[in-house]
Each structure stands twice: as structure tokens, then as C-alpha cells.
Amino acid sequence: MKTVILAGGLGTRLSEETSTRPKPMVEIGGFPILWHIMKIYASHGLKDFIVCCGYKSYVIKEYFANYARHLSDLRIDMKRNSIQFLNNAAEDWTVTLVETGHSTMTGGRLKRVRDHIGDDEAFCFTYGDGVSDVNITEQIAFHKAHGKLATVTAVEPTGRYGALGLKGSEVVKFMEKPSEGAGWINGGFFVLSPKVFDFIEGDHTSWEVEPLTEITRAGQLEAYLHRGFWQSMDTLRDRTMLEKMWASGNAPWRSWSTPA
Measuring CA to CA, which residue among 37, 92, 97, 100 is closest to residue 63? Predict the structure, then answer.
């Protein structure tokens, strides 16, 4: 099963990091968050990736084009201008990098990779800025069992700020980062039938607006409830938090056991 990842947006809310690179290439523990997402899927056996590129796509292309060189031990013969790989630490992935436009909306980016899905019965789809310990294997089984066109992972994020319980102007209860957060929200990590492409009009279409609304109206969207870890990297604060988790050796989304 193929996995489509959105990696073409501007990432304006993380402008401190995205002036020189697309948001999915912002690093956590020395590796782009895009790499972390791919590692999550690969740990469940999904190793065929389609990346929807846009803003500063050359950064993504150069990273994967030189991936093996970055991670492997090399012997370089300067006189002969040759490079020998002493080991090959590269992943056994297939990565298709597709130019989906600089200003294309999320739905439009997805539709632009339609031909790369082929005749597959289903495919995975997610955003290039969020990590989770969601059980992808279990989610795919859930999708196949209900038989509808789309499955979205529903998550309950922790509230960002302390919540106040008020009685008039008197504070009667204070909750620091309440676990209830905003209730169930779209956490990405979709499993989709290629038939969803019929709900996307073109480049101007936002996946989260018209397509998901119409799919819902048709009774073809099921939610896979995930009560574990989930975190998007929308701000510098989010990135700092994820970096601290990785550095502590307690990154909940790390579902693989390799050294990196």
C-alpha cells in the first residue's frame, strides 16, 4: 500500500524555521519531521511513499537524492573522483517526489498524484507535520472492515493553555492543560479509496473543506479513534517540545528500533 504525504505548504506559523526550507524538512533530533513520519509508516511495512512537493521542493529532492551518502560510511578517491560506500545505511524505501505546485491547496495536491496511485484498492494519506503512535496496521484493518471510502484518525489533543472554571468573575476551578482539549479533531493519518479523487475539483480545493464535507454527507467517512500520542508541529513551541521528547529518549511516536 502506498503512502501519500503533503509536503508543499509554506508553514507560515513556523516562519522562524521555514524561511529556508519547507516545514516537513524542519528537524527533530537531526532528522526532518518528514523522515519521522515515513519511519512510522515503514515500521508497519509501508515503504512506498509519494511526497507532494511545492514550496522549496529542491530541499526535499536534494535530501533524498543524497540520503545514502549522508548516512553511510564513504571512501572517496579524490584523484579518480570516485566514491565507495563502505556500508549502506539507507532505508529500503521507494520515494516518489512530485511537483504539485507552489500555491496548490491540500486537495489539489492530493489529486495531482492520482496517476501514481494506479489501481490500488486503498492508500494512506497524511500531513507532513504531525507525528503519532497511531497503530497504522490496525487502522488499515479497520478501514477494510467498514468498507467505506475514507477513514480519518480522530484524536483528542491536550489543551495548549490552562483552563479556567468561572462563576461570574470568580475563578472556581483551574485546570493546567486539560486532557479534554478541544474534543475529537482531525489528526490526519487517513486511509482512502482512490474514489475520493472524484470529490476533488482541482488545485483550488482544500481537502478539509469540500471533499471531506461531501464524503461525510455521502455517509462514506469513518473515524478511527486514537487515544494515544499525537502532536502536530505548527509552531516553534511545538518543535521545541518534540525535540525535548526525542532528546530524552522518550519519543512516543518512535515505533521503530533501529539506531537512528
Answer: 97
pLDDT in tens, 219-235: 899 999 999 999 999 89
CA distance 233 to 3: 20
- Quote the cell numbers at residue 26: 524542519
Give the per-residue SS3 of the chain: CEEEEEECCCCHHHHHHHCCCCHHHCEECCEEHHHHHHHHHHCCCCCEEEEEECCCHHHHHHHHHCHHHHHCCEEEECCCCEEEECCCCCCCCEEEEEECCCCCCHHHHHHHCHHHHCCCCCEEEEECCEEECCCHHHHHHHHHHHCCCEEEEEECCCCCCCEEEEECCEEEEEECCCCCCCCCEECCCEEECHHHHHHCCCCCCCCCCHHHHHHHHCCCEEEEEECCCEEECCCHHHHHHHHHHHHCCCCCCCCCCCCC
Q: What is the pLDDT of residues 147-165, one digit of tens each?
A: 999 999 988 776 654 454 5
Q: For residue 230, which of 133, 139, 129, 127 has the smallest C-alpha distance?
A: 133
